Amino acid sequence: MSFKRGIGRFARGRRGTTAMMFAGALLGILPAVGFVVDYGMYLNSQNRVQHALDMAGLAAARHLNQNYGSDADTVKTLTREFFKSELQGHDYITMNEVDVVRSGMRLNLEVDGTMPTSLMSLVGVDTMSLYTEAEVVFGTPTKAEIVLVLDTSYSMSKIDPGDTESRIKSLKDAAGEMVVSLVDPDSGVDIKMGVVPFSDRVNVGTDYKSAGWITGTEKEETSSERCFTSPIWLQANCDRVPEQCSNDGVSYSCYRWECHGKQPPSTAQNCTTVTTTKEWHGCVKPRSAENHLTDAGYASEKIPGHLSPNANQCASPMLPLTDVAGDLTDMIEEMEVRNKTYMPTGLIWGLRMLTPKAPFRADDTIRAFAADGGVKTIILMSDGANTMKLGSSSGIVSVIKDYEVGTPAGNKTNEDTSALCTLIKSKGVEIYVVAYGIDDAATTALLKGCASSESRYFEAGSTAQLKKTFEAITQQLGRDVSISG
Is the peptide bond before 286 cis (omega within 30 degrees of 0)? Predict the structure, then answer.
């Protein structure tokens, strides 16, 4: 082979190798180039969709300012048509129907869709999501009714790592400051507030003992024989074994007697007749399984009172709507932690406080109040999972009991809690939710779904954060028309 021919073959080989190397390099950089190009198109498309959704929300808000009583279908149709008109000329974007949820004087809008890619399709990415949401508040509230539904179960006695005060102390401070800020006769807005402390039950206050909507408040006395094993026999024959017990998630030291199969003789048994007097201290139980999530029918099924030997069998007394700030702050300061967590009882009583029917009578229906420029709101604060459930019924008297060991905590109660949140929002009441120190995924999801929108859900992991959260909610309440994407 001549030198010249060898050089030619080498040159042709180099050209082939270079082409292969270039092709390999191109395949390596193509996804990056494609991402830059398509991401620019995505940002432009996302901005167009966001603008269209914002404008559609404002159009719906203007309509509702003049026609508050419009039904949901009319508002949806108007919003969807306006959204489509704003996107005319951008046929490459494919969008689904706008979802519109109304809560009081607020509209939450969501829409999903896609845009096609160009270069990224070469590596298998054909579309990019254009999910978008917006929030519109229409009108400026001239009055408000706000109910604080506050978890005062025993877990609120905790002092978290890094904090110097208990959860309940922090809650009292935060809620008290909210009352002072909002219930102000010089603010120009007529605001009334109420408070519903809850644990496993609520306390309506003893003033309602003879009300037509309640039953089972008369004193009862029962006598029974009770037998106790002599402490002397236990100490001589058994071992005292230390254990860790728990009350609503708060651990404490306790003990049990381990007697290794020994049975105390009759001479070691002390028996006596005990007379127990149970009275009504304001506690109430849920109604039957059919009606415990409703705010109606009190003539046919009254609310059952809960009798007990002392006044510490449920939460502190609630306070119905009032515009006297001092009464509210005094009541909040007197709240005590008790028992375990059952959110449905707090929520249903929060709703009952906002309606003009018994048990408590607000001045107007939710719809009439809103049509007159008012907004009704529930602020739910909880620091843990539901640990109680509705038990079996005896007549119309339902009982609350612990979840059995091995049963997923909160399943049925979580369903009831979610159903109540949906009911309350459907009636036009806005729900703010504060999740305090919760690390349970199911409870977090439950509370997020309970809030009227994502911007109405807050998490706090310390006493300082809890106070800041209540300050943020205070600032949000009663604001003018606004949009947040």
Answer: no
Closest by alpha carbon to 388, among 366, 413, 371, 370?
413
Q: How far is the C-alpha of 382 from the C-alpha of 448, rounded, in Å?
A: 12
Return d(Cα 156, Cα 370) in angstroms, integer: 34
Q: Among 355, 372, 340, 325, which Cα is nearest to 423's?
A: 355
Residue 66 in tokens:
């003049």
Contact 233, 187 (CB under 8 A): no
3-state secondary structure 73-101: HHHHHHHHHHHHHHCCCCCCCEECCCEEE
pLDDT at 188: 65
Mean pLDDT of the chain, nearest integer: 83
Tokens of 420: 């109540």
Q: How far apart, in whole angstroms, are the C-alpha atoms of residue 461 and residue 441?
A: 15
Q: Which of 62-76, 439-453, 459-473 has the lowest mean pLDDT?
A: 62-76
Handedness of CA 108, 476, 324, 305 (dihedral sign): positive
Q: Give 369's contacts (C-beta < 8 A, 6+ positions apart).
A: 143, 145, 362, 363, 375, 376
pTM across the whole model: 0.69
Neighbour-count burial of 187, counting CB atoms closer than 10 A to its CB (0-12 exposed, 13-18 middle, 19+ buried): exposed
